[in-house]
């Protein structure tokens, strides 16, 4: 019975993700999901539960609280560039330092991290686990 409920949650949630994908939202917030969910007839209070089930089944990756990424396993989805993820995690921000130098061909060293600069105070050197993100 539990597996059947999970399939139901996933099927309903995929309609919401399809709507987000059609709107070009590869990385989205819960507010974006609620808007897409209401378009698909999903109750506002069910959206967070649907996101939870979709994250557990690999259709989404949770980047941080309230921020999700559509997995590249979703039909028609191409992998999201690491710069796009970094800039979604910290706003406002700009790609900088070694990441920018490598991107513009000014160094042959490949950075192990994505470096960004922001005007906002953020915790130093916060690593993000990218579970369920297929590159």
From TrEMBL:
Pfam families: AbiEi_4 (PF13338). InterPro entries: AbiEi_N. Residues 16-70 form the AbiEi antitoxin N-terminal domain. This is AbiEi antitoxin N-terminal domain-containing protein.
